[in-house]
Amino acid sequence: MASEDYHRGEMDIQEQVATYKAVMGLTKWGSLAVATAVLAATLWFCTPAGFFGGLIPSLAVLVIGILVLRDKKDGGH
């Protein structure tokens, strides 16, 4: 029987772990990029702030987002 060949916890899951980390990374950094772009476009086109009024806050959000979302070296998770 095929069920006799399966042993729980003995399968190599490195490919699944790598895929999960890639998807989570793309989601995390893609969300930051979209949020920054939406903020810049909103401030530029929908307020009298203009181009630089949208660029400067967007760059601030980008820098803060990078600092918050980057991988921590001493993370326990």
Keywords:
69% helix; elongated; single chain; 0% strand; 2 helices; 77 residues; mainly alpha
Q: Short summary of the structure?
A:
The protein is built from two helices and no strands. With 77 residues, the chain is an all-alpha fold. It has a domain of 40 residues.
Share of residues in helices: 55-70%
Number of strands: 0
Which regions have little confidence, pLDDT < 50, spanning 5+ residues?
A: none
Class per helix and strand makeup: mainly alpha
Content of β-strand: under 5%
For the terminal residues, how far apart are their CA atoms? Answer: 38 Å
Q: Major sheet, described briefly?
A: none
Order of SSEs: HH
Mean pLDDT: 89
Rg over CA atoms, rounded to whole Å, is: 21 Å
Shape annotation: elongated
Q: Number of helix segments? A: 2
Report on this model:
The protein is mostly helical and 77 residues long. It has a domain at 31-70. The protein has helices at residues 14-46, 50-69. Helix 1 runs antiparallel to helix 2 (50-69). The mean pLDDT is 89.
Write the topology of this structure.
Blueprint: H1 14-46, H2 50-69
Helix pairs in contact: 1-2
